[in-house]
Structures are given as structure tokens and as C-alpha cells.
Design brief:
The chain is of the alpha/beta class and about 120 residues long. It is built from four helices and five strands, in the order H-H-E-E-E-E-H-E-H. The protein is about 30% helix and about 25% strand. The chain is globular, with a radius of gyration of 13 Å. The protein has a five-stranded mixed β-sheet with strand order 1-2-3-4-5, with helices on both faces. This is Ubiquitin-like protease family profile domain-containing protein.
Length: about 120
């Protein structure tokens, strides 16, 4: 699924739309949240074809990170973005590979509406 399709899907929900900050390559994340709290990010930089989508949702100084492989960012621009905008990181501990390619959008919606 490409970034425009993910953005259209996330923005099609009236609740999520007001907090959705967009779809980014890992090297294009904004420096700060600027009023938004939910993002979908590809692990690759813009110069690469794209490898895997993850979701970030920020609430109460905590970043909720979702990866369908249950991995956690250990370094790089995504981790820097998380550290700049939160004090705590939480992530899913179990893989959800059966839900691909939409788990990132599902997670962003669930995080915003239920946390």
C-alpha cells in the first residue's frame, strides 16, 4: 500500500482526521508534533522504495509504537522523533502479520480513540 492510500484511509475517519499528522518516510518526520498525535511511518528513507509501515500515537507524554512484526525502534530518525516528543515508549509485544497491510492504520485509529 502506498503513502497516499494510507493517508486517504486514515483521513476518511472523522474522529482520527483531526489528530492524524500524516504518512512519512523515516527521514521526513516533522521535528515536533505540531498539534497532531498520530502518524504512519515507513522504516525506509524517501530515497528507498519503502520496506515496512509502522504507526506512532502520542498521548500523555507516551508514544505508542506499533509494528506488525512486534519490533521496537532501537536507533535512527524514528527513535529520535519519539524521544523528542515523549518521555515513555510503549509497543506491541506480539506480531500481527496476518493483518497486513492495514495494521498501521488500525492501530492509529484504536490508539487515538481508546487510549
Amino acid at each position: 500500500m502506498n503513502s497516499q492510500s494510507l493517508c486517504n484511509l486514515a483521513c476518511s475517519d472523522s474522529i482520527l482526521r483531526s489528530k492524524f499528522g500524516g504518512v512519512y518516510a523515516s527521514d521526513e518526520l516533522p521535528r515536533t508534533l505540531t498539534g497532531y498525535s498520530c502518524f504512519i511511518v515507513n522504516l525506509d528513507s524517501r530515497a528507498k522504495p519503502g520496506s515496512h509501515w509502522v504507526a506512532l500515537a502520542f498521548r500523555n507524554n507516551t508514544c505508542f509504537y506499533f509494528c506488525s512484526f512486534a519490533s521496537v525502534p532501537k536507533k535512527g530518525k524514528i527513535l529520535n522523533f519519539i524521544k523528542q516528543n515523549s518521555q515513555k515508549l510503549m509497543w506491541n509485544k506480539f506480531a500481527t502479520k496476518a493483518l497486513r497491510p492495514l495494521p498501521a492504520v488500525n492501530f492509529v485509529f484504536i490508539s487515538y480513540t481508546n487510549l
